[in-house]
Every structure is written in C-alpha cells, then in structure tokens.
Design the sequence.
C-alpha cells in the first residue's frame, strides 16, 4: 500500500519541531529507508506513520485512506521495535498470535496461523519458549513474525538491526531483504547506519532537523550527494570536503570557460558539465570520496600521517598545507608514514558544492 | 604465624573466605542490639504468655506458670476472635483492596497527567502519609465529629456520629487515605519499568486500554503487586493508629488486634493473656512474611 505524507509537521509539547512540513511518497511494495543522525526526526516520522504520534498539521494517507487522525490499532500497520517489545510472560506462539487475539480470531485458527508464520521464519521448534530463552536473532524473528501474523499493509521497522552483534547483523540484513522481497509489503525502516540503508533500501530519505535533505536510490545518494550534509553522512569512509575557490584558468587554456578550482594551492579542472555554472571568485566546497582519489605525478601534495587497515584497502590520512585529506589505497600498496604523496581525483568523480548553502552544483 | 595471618586476610578478598574472628567483630555490635531489643523481649513475651501475670495484685508479685491455658483461652475467646476478624476486615478493606487499587489507579492516571497536576496530587497524597499519626488522628476525629464535624457540614447532616455509627467503615476509609501514598509511589516506579514499546506494540495490534492493562501492564508488574500487597498487609495488620482515634470504642467495635492487646494488657491489666495474644499475632506476621519470601523466591 502506498504511504503519502503531505506537509506533515510535528511539534512536541516542549516546542521542539521534530518534523518540519515534510512531504513524501512511499510507493507500494517499496523497501524504504529513513536515514539520519540522532535527533533528525526519522523515528518521529516512523511513529507518526504508525499513529503513535499524531501530526501537528498536514495529512497522512495509507493507500487512499486518510489516516492522519486514525488510532494506531485501526491503521492496519505493524511495527517492529528496536528492542523487539516481545511480551516476556507469553510464549513465542502467544506473542505471534497476539494481534490475532485482539482481532478476536478463534483460538484454533490463530494457533495455526502463528505456527505457519513461525515456521516461515524458522521458529518451528521454539514456539513454546519464552522470549528470555531466545537469542537476539531469534527474538527479532519472533517480533517480525508477530508483525506479519496480522498481514498488515505496511511494515514499520525501528532500527531493525541495531540490537544484534556485528556478525549476526550482516546475516539478518540479508534475511530481511529477502523477506521483504518475498512478502512484497511496503516497508519503512529507520536507521542511523548509512551502510544498512544503502544495502537494504530501494530508496533512501536522508533527514536532518525534521526535513528530507535528499531522496533517492542508494546509488544516487552515494554517487551524487545533493548537499554537503548528505556527502558527509553517506559512505563508510567520510568524503573529503575541501574548501576552494573558482579561479580563471592559467596558461593556454585560459579562456572564459577554462576556470579551475583552487584547493589548498592546487588547481583542479572544473567538471565540464558545470563549467557554465561557475564564475571566478565563487567560493566552493569540493567533495571527493577517499576511494576516488588516486596517486599521481602532481595534484594535492601531502605527507602521510596515519594509515588505517580496512582489510582489502587501507585508509591513508594526508596532512597538506590546507585541511587533511583521506584516500584509500589497495592492500599491499600502503605508504610509510612520513612519505610524501600526490593525489588527484579520478576523472568524473569530483563533486562541487556551493560554499554558501552547501548544495551540489548540477549540470544546467 | 604473622605470615599465615596475612595469607588468610588476602583470602578474605574472596567471598566466603577470610578471617572468621575479624568478620565476627564486625557483626557482634549489630547482633547484640538485635538480641537486646528483639530476641530478649520476644522471649520475655513468650514467658509471660505462659503465666497469669497481672499488672497489680497477687499475680503481679507472684505470677504462676499456667502453661498453655492462655492460648487455649484465647482461641476460644469471643472477644479475641472478634478482634482478629475486625483486623482481617481492616487489612482486606483498607490495604489489600483500598490502598492497592487506589494506589494503582492514581499511579496509572497520573502517568499521562500534566506535570503540575501530577506534582499536586502526589504532594497531597504524600502529605497524608508523612504527617505524624497523632496529627492525622486528630484531623480525622475533627473531620467525622458529630458536633461541628467537617463531613457533616459538607453533607448537611448535623449531629451524625460517623465514628459511632460506622467505626470499622470509618477506620477503613481513614487508613486508605493515610496509606495509599506508599502504594502509589511503588506502582509509579513499577509502571515506569514497563517498556513503553510493549504498550505501543499492544496499541498497534489494536488493544484497548483495558486490554493493554490486562496483557502487558499487570503481568509486567506482578512482582511489584505482590511485594506491595504483602508489605501493606503487614503494616496494616500491626497498625496502632486506630487507638489514637477511637480507643476501640464503641464497646470494642473498632478494636483491631493491636488495640485489643493494648486494652487487655494495660487498662485490662491481664499481661499474661495479652502476651499470649501478642505471640499469636507474631506467628501470623511470621507466616505472612514466610509466604511472601516463598512466593518471591519462586518468581526468581
């Protein structure tokens, strides 16, 4: 079922604005991530869709039905909480069957349904246990089963993987993606982990201060962050964001469109597609991922300060005359600390942001 | 030798190990206090309960040991059984039902109340609890007085003597008023231990307020309910404040067990018999406490 929000604002009693006139459309069957740092409003947004918070203004629709003022139990949504919120005094079977019990489904039928749902999530042998007797991963599957049992039209997951240890988290991630794919139910999940959002979601909304800063597929958000905030937030190694200035080109290429960008005394060519958008004197921020910086003859010069081993690559931090710069090098190619290195951006990987508002300069 | 002692002291870092004499030195003062103020009086009561000791007269100077006569007499005595019955009514009405239910309802309602409203109600309820017994006794005498009593003024029923007409009912209402604060505080703490996400899960499933209470809250705070019920039962069972209000009047109709013991021992002068009843009361207390510990252990 489609979920649409129109100008939804949520102001808490204390006067804190958690959602600021936020509009969003989540397609039917989509696996949708709300991503952002803590306090950005992503959990409030999820809870507003659930009905656990009521929007201060604006409207919320699930399918064609306006549910802005509908209580949570009547919205036909199910939520899996960060702590799973299983009822500790009930068995796994009773936990899974609970939504059906509230809906007054007969005892035999709800037992059968709970058993079938549990079976589907490999909980078959655990139906008579209490939540305290289960591992974290099993508890999560019980919570998922409870959410699925009533066959809701929308699934809401609050930080679904954050309570699992690192190894289990990867397993659960794959499992969750497959489950969502198989069920085909519209699923919205909240996470502060950009890798999780990139791995799971069909589309991601990156949020900050109650607004969506970028909405797009994982590829779009990763390759072309729409502003400095998203650029700094997405990516397992943080993007290099270097202050620079547009200057007239030097030498024979110094035509009116031959501008360059001066970063810490190094001149970088302006990407061709945005050449018309810049005039000399413009202050900019250059964004370049560590993965897209390569060693070269010239370019930004720096001294190797720290080398961090990431497994198949190493993250190298360079001190330059300006801000420090990070790049990754393949394994076996790690430089010694103290060595001097020149690096340039790989062609087509340079992003240029306006210094004043931090927005990406796009092709006209 | 010194070397050996040092080693044993080191072993003392491990629970269960250590120097016995050193450990004993730490607990002896406490044991002495317990012996002087708890065990000796209890043994003395046990002894008195076996005699016909009285406050004045021949038996005061030369009490005779009468064996278990006091106990057999007590169990057959109508006054004693009436007092016990009143006490059970008092405990059931004012503690197990009154304070428990009202305390829970207050805690449950105040959870979602505005901050100032909660502070106001909590202060008022707590005030009833922290005021000295003598003060609240006088307040309630004045409140329910036949001539010029506050309740009569409110209800326009001048001359109605509540304490005389409904002594036990009035005591129960009084004790609910006086003691609810503890239950309210305990349940407030208990409710805050129920994870909000569990309540929200139930709400998302469509559970009504009552269903959330039945399926999530009450099972979640079962242990707290048990602890609270047993504590307030014991306190109410042993409460002597009723004496400050009614002195057991009219004609012993409000004499709960502690009041009955006092009336028997001091104005009644039958110290031996009163000691026997005290011991019976002690045994009932012990049984309640044992039941409490057993149930708590089983939960753990």
Sequence:
């Amino acid at each position: 079922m489609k979920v649409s929000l129109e100008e939804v604002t949520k102001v808490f009693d204390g006067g804190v604005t958690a959602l600021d006139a936020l509009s969003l459309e989540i397609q039917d069957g989509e696996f949708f991530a709300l991503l952002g740092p803590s306090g950005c409003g992503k959990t409030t947004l999820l809870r507003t869709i659930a009905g656990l918070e009521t929007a201060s203004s604006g409207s919320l629709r699930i399918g064609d039905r306006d549910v802005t003022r509908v209580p949570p139990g009547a919205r036909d949504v199910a939520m899996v909480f960060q702590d799973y919120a299983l009822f500790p005094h009930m068995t796994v079977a009773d936990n899974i069957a609970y939504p059906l019990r509230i809906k007054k489904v007969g005892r035999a039928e709800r037992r059968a349904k709970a058993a079938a749902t549990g079976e589907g999530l490999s909980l078959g042998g655990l139906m008579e246990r209490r939540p305290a007797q289960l591992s974290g991963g099993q508890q999560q599957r019980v919570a998922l089963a409870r959410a699925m049992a009533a066959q809701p039209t929308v699934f809401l997951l609050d930080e679904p993987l954050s309570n699992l240890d690192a190894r289990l988290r990867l397993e659960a991630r794959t499992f969750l993606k497959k489950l969502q794919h198989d069920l085909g139910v519209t699923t919205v999940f909240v996470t502060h982990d950009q890798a999780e959002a990139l791995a799971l979601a069909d589309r991601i909304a990156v949020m900050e201060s109650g607004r969506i800063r970028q909405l797009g597929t994982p590829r779009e958000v990763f390759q072309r962050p729409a502003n400095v905030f998203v650029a700094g937030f997405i990516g397992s190694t943080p993007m290099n964001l270097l202050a620079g200035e547009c200057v007239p080109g030097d030498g024979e290429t110094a035509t009116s469109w031959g501008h360059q960008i001066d970063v810490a005394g190094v001149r970088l060519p302006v990407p061709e597609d945005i050449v018309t958008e810049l005039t000399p004197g413009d202050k900019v921020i250059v964004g370049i991922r560590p993965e897209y910086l390569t060693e070269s003859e010239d370019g930004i010069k720096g001294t190797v300060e720290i080398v961090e081993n990431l497994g198949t690559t190493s993250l190298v931090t360079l001190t330059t005359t300006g801000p420090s710069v990070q790049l990754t090098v393949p394994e076996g190619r790690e430089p010694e600390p103290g060595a001097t290195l020149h690096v340039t951006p790989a062609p087509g990987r340079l992003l240029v942001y306006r210094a004043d508002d931090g927005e990406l300069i796009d092709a006209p | 030798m010194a070397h050996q002692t040092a080693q044993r002291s080191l072993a003392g870092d491990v629970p269960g190990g250590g120097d016995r004499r050193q450990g004993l030195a730490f607990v002896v003062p406490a044991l002495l206090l317990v012996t002087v103020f708890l065990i000796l009086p209890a043994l003395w009561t046990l002894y008195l309960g076996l005699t016909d000791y009285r406050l004045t007269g021949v038996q005061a100077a030369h009490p005779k040991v009468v064996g278990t006569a006091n106990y057999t007499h007590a169990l057959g005595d109508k006054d004693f059984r009436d007092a016990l019955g009143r006490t059970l009514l008092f405990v059931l009405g004012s503690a197990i039902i009154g304070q428990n239910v009202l305390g829970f309802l207050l805690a449950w309602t105040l959870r979602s109340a505005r901050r100032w409203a909660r502070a106001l109600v909590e202060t008022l309820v707590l005030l009833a609890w922290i005021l000295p017994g003598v003060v609240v006794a006088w307040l309630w005498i004045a409140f329910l007085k036949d001539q010029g009593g506050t309740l009569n003024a409110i209800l326009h029923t001048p001359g109605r003597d509540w304490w005389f007409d409904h002594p036990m009912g009035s005591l129960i209402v009084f004790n609910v008023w006086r003691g609810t604060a503890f239950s309210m505080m305990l349940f407030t703490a208990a409710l805050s231990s129920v994870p909000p996400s569990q309540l929200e899960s139930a709400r998302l499933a469509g559970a009504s307020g009552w269903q959330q209470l039945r399926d999530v809250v009450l099972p979640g705070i079962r242990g707290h309910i048990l602890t609270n019920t047993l504590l307030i039962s014991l306190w109410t069972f042993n409460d002597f404040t009723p004496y400050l209000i009614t002195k057991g009047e009219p004609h012993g109709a409000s004499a709960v067990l502690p009041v009955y013991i006092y009336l028997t021992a001091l104005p009644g002068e039958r110290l031996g018999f009163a000691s026997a009843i005290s011991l019976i009361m002690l045994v009932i207390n012990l049984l309640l406490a044992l039941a409490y510990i057993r149930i708590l252990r089983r939960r753990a």
Q: What stands out?
A: Confidence is low (pLDDT under 50) at residues 1-12 of chain B. Chain B touches chain A at residues 195, 197-198, 200-207, 211, 215-216, 219-220, 222 (CB under 8 Å).
